[in-house]
């Protein structure tokens, strides 16, 4: 949050830099997410995931503090500060990738099938809660603003986050992972073999494409929704900022419904995760079509309700995607969970970063081509809707693994082609 929001604002407002500078730095942080499969493989081969999680958090904390220092240096020497910032944002990406991939693999290893929707909901809720608390606390302590205060507050938040991570993980991981096959090491050859195995699994491959396409669609409106509301509906900066809160409220509602509903109905309807994911994608497409239709500029359009609906659909889709990720990650066996989770984390990071860039670039390109501003924004929303529709079509074709209960084989009533691979306990 500090790296992608607070430092972004300081570079643009306080230092007067072009938005391209922080945009490129944040893009570098997303770009290195392609290394996530390697971090996941390391935690698989190492026998324990906790060291990778804490190591990633420590690297993230140091890099965020370094990034704040680099921004302060920019005020006196832009070239030196930019060089430091590039290194720090790359390290931020590595820290996020190592910690996030290993944490999700740990959660997937310990969570029973029936509890995965609720677990995915809790993970997202805790992430949003952490962002909210950090934003409120740092906003209070950063005023009156100075570069020295920025560095001090960032360092304090980083130190506190590291301490919380250490306490939260104490005693969670009992024992070690099952021993890898004889001769398996952390070598690059072993990593390549594991990655090839995951890619040759049709369900894992389809899910990778699904994550990439859906995250592009998910993030394309990230940088354009507030400008759209200001241009088409004449909203003030304060009003468009509250619109973001309305959307996040919808996300929370969708996650709660998806998490609780998915957990409650998982045993009776094994295909509930697939149905939630498809429903979330289609509802997201419908909400985006409505936003595109509202570009005519009718101030009577219920924009807040439309944005809440978009957030709700996104939340429903997100919970189903994370829970499905946990289930599919375990299908490769406990010594491949981290690598598979890393593969999908890489697809998520690259898709999210690319989507935000493409959304903003598409608006600029259409306006340069002579399209009115409202039509340009509507065009991007239509592209997003098409992306979510394609994601729904991909999700329908993904067969989720399931455990076979003692009473006999359980099949997915909604999908005769549901596979019979067993996820490990």
Automatic annotation (TrEMBL):
Comp. bias intervals (Basic and acidic residues): 405-414
Record-linked Gene3D superfamilies: MFS general substrate transporter like domains
Signal peptide: none
InterPro entries from the UniProt entry: MFS_dom, MFS_trans_sf, PucC, PucC-rel
Location in the cell: Membrane
Recorded topology in the membrane: Multi-pass membrane protein
UniProt region (Disordered), positions on chain: 405-425
GO terms for cellular component: membrane
Domain Major facilitator superfamily (MFS) profile: 1-403
Principal subcellular localisation of the protein: membrane
One Pfam family in the UniProt entry: PUCC
GO MF annotations in UniProt: transmembrane transporter activity
Superkingdom, natural source: Bacteria
PANTHER family for the chain: 44.5 KD BACTERIOCHLOROPHYLL SYNTHASE SUBUNIT
Protein name: BCD family MFS transporter
